[in-house]
Amino acid sequence: MGALEAPHRFVTSRPVKGGFVRLVRARTLAFAPMILIASLALAADAATPVAPPFWSGNPDSAGFRALADGELKTAGDALDRLLQVKGARTVENTFAPYNEALLHADNAAISPA
Known about the structure:
This protein has two domains: about 15-45; about 60-113. Helix content is about 65%, strand content about 0%. The protein is built from three helices and no strands.
């Protein structure tokens, strides 16, 4: 074998039907569900409101207290929504309010009060 020749260990004994186009289609179909899930997650993340940082506006101690109280009220409202469900439990009516309650309670706990 010369210096410029590549080894032929990857050559198969029979040709692949459909070749490269078939391979690209198969991979595209395999990745389509993952792309869909990722785009849905990004859309849901973009719809989630983000609280401003606790230091915005340079609040004093009363301002920090008001921020923490607001976060606790929002967490309590989410828990109330969770407890008011009368039908079957789903992700939308159970996990989403629970997650929101934990998020806002954590925001209240970590903001300096």
